[in-house]
Amino acid sequence: MRQVLLFCCISFLNTVTLFAQDNFTTRKTTSPKVLKAYDEAFELVKTQKLDKALEILQKTQTQDPKFIDAPILMAQIKYDQGKYAESIALYQKALALGPDYRPRLYYQLALTQLNLEQYTDAITSLEQFLKREKTNQDLIRRAQKHLRNAQFAKDAVLKPVSFKPEKLPPSINTSEHNETLPSLSADGQTIIFTRRLGKQEDFFVSKKENGQWMPAQALAALNSELSEGGHSLSADGRTLVYTGCNVPGGLGSCDLYISSQQNGQWTPSANLKGPVNTRAWESQASLSADGKILFFASDRPGGLGGRDIWQTQRQSDGNWSTPSNLGATINTPDEDQAPFFHPDGNSLYFMSDGHAGMGGTDLFVARKQADGSWGKPQNLGYPINTRADEGALVVSLDGTQAYYTGGTPDGKLDIYTFSLPAEDRPQPVTYARGLVFDAKTQQSLAAKVELIDLATKQVLIQQETSADGIFLVCLPLGKNYALNVNKAQYLFYSDNFALQEKRNQAEPFELKVPLQAITSNNTPVVGQPVILKNVFFASGSAALQPESNAELQRLNDLLKQNPNLKIRIHGHTDNVGDDTTNQKLSEQRAKAVYDYLVQQGIPPIRLAYQGFGESKPIADNNTAEGRQVNRRTEFVVF
Asked: How far apart are CA 508 and CA 522, in angstroms?
């Protein structure tokens, strides 16, 4: 899979100059005529007259078959011409003349063999080089790296993974421009990418309608006369963190910038400033689904070498913390960059030429462990990775599809997608998207949204909706969540997502969130019951479960923030069991919530409770799902 690297530079080794300054000993033993011809050929190589140089060198072979310098230079020329098989034969001829003549010949032979994917032979050549070379530490380090890659590639090509890339439609990929670096919203309905127009790159956005991508439009609010790219779109599609280079007022060569949608309009881009941006190079952002962590690549001081992956956390005041390096498990002394942190909260995809791979820049995935550390990066395999340099990718919410920039036969760049192999996929994730509005006026409301892990009681997401009242939160499978939506002078809304036992992809949740106003003309409003969907009891019991604490605390806060508010707690059961038992159980459960609030300091005069048994079902008691809905605790204003 050949891809593009933007905001990244690559240096190449000129194979001819690798040996050009060596003083070959056989120059002292050959005839002056051969030596003169060799020197003439060498000067021709400098001016790229390679065919003429080869012609002269071939004659020296006839004149002095033991003159080892000639086949070495011929091998170098053939290498630069891309004629690797001929180059290998010439290197082998030179080594047959002098196995210990120059250790570097084994190194150069190995590079040539790697270009033809002759991994077993390359391993032997590299081992021979490392056996002989003792002084050039830089070359030794590079040879050790090539050896690791050759050993990995030898096995990888024998066990290829499935890889069938498909180009995105003409509504995104054009015939005349390069399209690169896609970034998607969590629901998969919005894609933002860069399109090269002349000498600059601009953002374009496409929306999906009825399963089809609509013609992409320029993101005019963020585009400028400079190039924009290296970006990350937030899970809800409303925040964009991107790279701007050589922007007036910037801190370094490339800085990270941020913009958000407010009331349907993108805000002016803001430089993230220090401590995120420095005088160094910062680029290739990836924003976590909860918006709390920003991953990026940088060559700032304090790294392990080259470009490293760093992370910074959004603090309670909205500022970003001092970035920390992801450490030696992820970063290497070489180039590690282009992070993509999946919404599952555990899977980090990135590209690196420092971990063992196919030979160029490969793609890897690392998993976050239970203790917060990173597990060993896993190479995505061949032919997703090749001897070419692979570039950045992003992965869909369900983990099945990856998107990347790839080359076309005519040399153009387009955006492709492919099915990610099962072993490389993240944990499945679904999402809940909601619309918050006033229950009476039906007008959308800006409100606070919290997502809570019921097992740990940790607030995973805390965000404010804009005035349109729309929000989206990602829900990794395998946990149970409480959702709370609240606004001052309104009763709160709660929902529950029981995904602990869910291991396969779940359908997204589309929510309507009506909020009831608490006061009207300074008088408490009596409205519809508010179901406490995250209050749980032991089966057949009125004992509150620990998972209820977050919801009960929210109710306690509501009453303390609104001292004139009075509520009655209602208990309900399903129709399993006799009427008398159900009536008693519902009363006991309602009283358990009442008692909790009294213990928290709420005056009993502001509270009441009542049990209704099985008398007021709101769902079909003939189904397990319906019975679960009917077993509920709620409150009303009185």
From this structure: 39
